[in-house]
Amino acid sequence: MKIEYHKSLKEYNTFGIDVTAHEFVTITSKSELKKILSQNKEKELFILSGGSNMLLTRELNELVLHIAIKGIKVTEESDTHALVSVNAGENWHNFVEYCIDQDYGGIENLSLIPGYVGSAPIQNIGAYGVELKDTFVQCEAIHIATGKEHVFSKEDCKFGYRNSIFKNEVKGEYIITNVTFRLTKTNHSLNTKYGAIENALIDKKIKNPSIKDISEAVILIRQSKLPDPKKIGNSGSFFKNPVISKSHFSLLQKKHPEMPSYIIDENQVKVPAGWLIEASGFKGKRWGEVGVHKKQALVLVNYGDAKGTDILELSKKIKAEIKQKFDINLETEVNII
Ligand code: EPU
Fold first, then answer.
1. How far does residue 149's CA lie from ligand 1's centre (Å)?
2. Given ligand 1 and candidates 108, 298, 332, which is best to mutate, with the most ligand atoms within 8 Å of its CB?
3. Which of 17, 77, 240, 300 has its CA 20 to 30 A from that of 330?
4. Residue 307's closest CA among 64, 9, 42?
């Protein structure tokens, strides 16, 4: 375990923001993690996983712990299901690919999501009709203050839309080291109801899709809409899709009959932030090094050397416009540091 000083984090965050970590250490095992925690009780820590859901707007003076603990293993198996235990530092998409290769079903719709497995439960990652919580069994975590291990069950995690206990009651208190999923070996319950997936399968003339077919369809859809962070810095959806009251929605609908919506319950409606941002004229616009992606308005991008504060400024401008035009408060999905 080597501490590195004044390390650039450009390669460690998908926005590609070049800030410096005063002290940085890569953790490759649970024992290393416990050791570093016990040796640095007085220090402020910053936990870095895949860096795919954060916007760095300042230098990090904390001790940065890059959680890179690797390993995937099947811990229990029946004729129909497998319990797969994955360490926090595994790349999420590599894990999805492992499952597709083994024909383990349940996370194929979550193909190509950037980031590591360890942070996936924090915001209950989701895409194309599937969320992490659908296959999640438990996660192991270390309590930062005491170094003690703790297991969080699915109920403990209180998963919601891009939300969990790790963003609320126990925010910043634990480091997730391992996640267990329950995946199907037979009778996969495929989720193809999302229009774009259906269309991709029709295009390929696939009537009885395998989980690999679905994964490939999702990869095509994502590649057609979302910028590849290796080429253009971004953090996926910058904002959450807002939930508004039905009466508010009815008012807006009179003015904007084409506004898409999803019913949450009898009183609430979710509207796509991407649509609101596009309707406000931001889509595809660029200001210097920052911009709004041309194919998906929910994604803010760094064209090269943007500062985190440049992106933050743009997000504030968008928020203010949406508030003024639709009286809706957009919430950021990305963590602002
Ligand atoms: N839309 C527009 N303009 C845009 C973008 C979207 O009008 O520029 C409209 C679309 O036409 C559609 C609706 O908004 O009617 C929804 O768009 P889309 O299906 O692309 O999904 P989204 O709501 O924009 C969410 C997730 C994505 C996830 C997709 C697919 C959130 C905040 N985002 O986006 O997640 O991949 O659904 O399931 O919930 C992420 O979290 O980083 C992420 C990419």
1. 37
2. 298
3. 17
4. 9
